[in-house]
Amino acid sequence: MGNNRTVSKTIGFAVLLVGCLTVLYVTTMYKLTWILPIVCIWIAIQLGIYLKSIITLDQLFRNVMYALLLSTFLNQSVISVNVGAFSLFLYRILLLLAIVVYVGIALYRKRLAEDFTRSGLSYIWLFFGGWIIYGTISVLWSISIIASIKYLSLLIMGIAFVYLASMTFNTRQQLKFFLASWLGMTVLLVGIGFVNYFFSIQLPSSGLYGASIHKLSYPTAVFFNQNDFAVYLGISFFFFLAVAKNAKRTMIKGSMLVLSVMVLILLYLTESRAAMLAVVVGGLVYLFLLVPKRWKKFILLSFFGLFLLGSLLFANRGIAKVQLLMNSAGEYGFDEVLPSNLARINLLRNTFYYLLDSYGFGIGAGNIPYYLEHKSYFPTGNVYQVHNWFAEIAGNFGLVILLGYLLVLIYAFIGFYRIYQTNNSSTDKMLLEACMIGMVSFLISSISPSSVMNLYFHWVFLGFILSTLSVYKNRKLES
Predict the structure, then answer these.
(1) CA angle, 371 as apex, 366 and 376 as ends, to 5°?
(2) DSSP string spanning 326-361?
């Protein structure tokens, strides 16, 4: 009897969903965008009512989060609909649904405050909340209000995902599912990347779609350009490596090693120098983690000594080269095309001056592109994104927010390293190594993309880091 009732409910919901999707299609075809939010909300409500009738509220939220996690790796390549100045696609629709479901459950069970504190990351959540509040206040001195609102929406969505992830992945087993989801989707994206390279085919979501033939072979998968993809590949390479090192089955070890080599080849084909440097530095840090404890102090002292010696021997030459590059970058006019390295130097110089002009408070959320286009001190070859994640944060939000962001990552890394020193479990080492070395790779390669704020996998990665930190701080290793 119960099964018959479930079947009838499913059939009824399916009919209703088909009708809603038909209305959704008609609204987009005839550009009736004002109806679109109403239809999406109605679909979400009906979906919630149906799912609540067959599963518990907690299962509903967890399943929505699993779907949301997988959808982030598809970027904007699925169900992309423009709504005025904004666009809706699968990730954003599922994120809005996840927020509604979580808030509804938390209010119903009166556990908002409990969820906030039980993760053990209260100060980190306070920082992220402060980041949103500060960004909202910065609109007061922003020149481009529209740019600020769009940029803040990306920030809020990213932080919302990170918080919801920490509420979802609360055990070691769930973290393994998180990591497996990342690796599984990476296999799909690597396949698309090789199709890009061998067949010169780009998806419509790529900035190279319709470009000249010699650019079509760059691997971009579902991302806007090859630099964005390279950052993702740099993190994924160490994820595969961590699983290969700690897996117990020979079959898994072999397959993970093969996939890591494929990722490395594809990363090389992107020609992203920052991402390749990130792999080299990440590899060195990985080796440092693996050497016996008694050798680590010697290695650190040796590295510090070599660094000092190199600074003394090559400081003058390095300073002279930087001055030469800066002088060369200043020789171009504002309408001329600059070489990539010179354009990046001028982008950073402009951002530094914007920081000085704003007394270190930032010029307002999302306003760097506007300033680079209309108030540039140095020519950038008509490039209006700063191409450096740290400069992007500092220029838009100021030095305090940048310092807070870096402190969060440093705190997480130190926490992981301390736990790593005392754990011998292969699962623990796999998760902790993936987090630590992935962070090293991201921090270095993040100077490559034009903007990191709209790279959704960055927020997924941050969600994985903080979920892992929460699990190990609270020792909730098992269900």
Answers:
(1) 150
(2) HHHHTTS-TTSPPPHHHHHHHHHHHHHHHHHHTTTS
Q: Is residue 451 part of a domain?
A: yes
Question: Could you tell me the CA-to-CA distances from 187 to 175, 194, 255 in Å, in that order?
Answer: 19, 11, 11
Report d(CA 245, CA 426) in Å as an integer. Answer: 9
Q: Does 67 map to a domain?
A: no
- Give the long-range contacts of residues 179-182, CB within 8 A, separation 24 or more: 179/239, 179/243, 179/430, 179/431, 179/434, 179/464, 181/66, 181/69, 181/70, 182/73, 182/236, 182/239, 182/460, 182/464
Give CA 67 to chain center in angstroms: 17
Question: What is the pTM assigned to this prediction?
Answer: 0.86
Q: Reduced to 3 states, what is the DSSP secondary structure of residue 417?
A: helix
Sign of CA dihedral 1, 16, 83, 104: negative
Query: What is the total count of domains within the chain?
Result: 1
Cα 68 from chain centroid (whole Å): 14
Residue 158 domain-assigned (yes or no) = no
**Alpha-carbon distances of 348 from 201, 320, 365, 384, rounded to whole Å:** 34, 18, 17, 11
Question: Two tokens at 37?
Answer: 């939010």
Can you give the residue range of the structural domain that contains 327? 172-474
pLDDT digits (tens, 9 = 90+) for 445-474: 999 898 999 898 999 999 999 999 999 988
Q: CA 349 to CA 380: how far, in whole Å?
A: 10
pLDDT tens for 376-405 read 898 888 888 999 999 999 999 999 999 999
Q: How many CB atoms lie within 10 A of CB 434?
A: 28
User: For 430, what's the count of Cα atoms within 13 Å in the CB-facing half-sphere?
Assistant: 21
**Domain-embedded: residue 283:** yes
Which residue in this structure is represented by tokens 């990665």? 461
Chain-centroid distance, C-alpha 250: 31
Cα 371 to Cα 290: distance, rounded to the nearest angstrom: 46
Asked if residue 366 lies in contact with residue 319, where contact means CB atoms within 8 angstroms, the answer is: no
Query: In angstroms, how far is the first alpha carbon of the chain from the final one?
Result: 32
Average pLDDT (6-19) is 59
